[in-house]
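Can you make up a protein sequence with its C-alpha cells?

===
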Amino acid sequence: MLIIFFFIPTLSWSKNITYTCNYAKSYEANFLYPELISVVVDLQQQSLITYKEDGNELTDSYYCERCSSTKDRVEIWTKKYNPWSLNPIDTDNARVFEIYAEDLVGHLWRPLQGGYDYRCKIS
C-alpha cells in the first residue's frame, strides 16, 4: 500500500499538458502568423512533445526553453536561433511562443518586431 501511495503523485504529474491557442490580436507585427497554435508539453521531462501552427507539424523546429510547471510561463523557442542575439541570422529566423500561466494568454514574437496574442485553453 505504501508503494501505491508514492507512485500516485508521480503518475498524475507525468501527464502531458495540451495548450490550444487561437489568434486574438496583433501588436504591429509584420510577419506571417497562424490562426491556431497547438502545443503539447511534458512538464516532468521539460520537453516539447508537439508544436503545430494551423495544423502544420513543426515540432522538429522547436524546443521547450522553459516548460516546468503549469504555474509558470511556458516558452517554446525555434532551434538554432537565439531570440536575444543581435546577430542578423538570429533576428531573421528566431521565433518564440510564450504562454503565460496566470491568464493563459499566448504571445508569438520575433526579435526586434512586435508580436501576436493568443487566447489559450488547457485540455
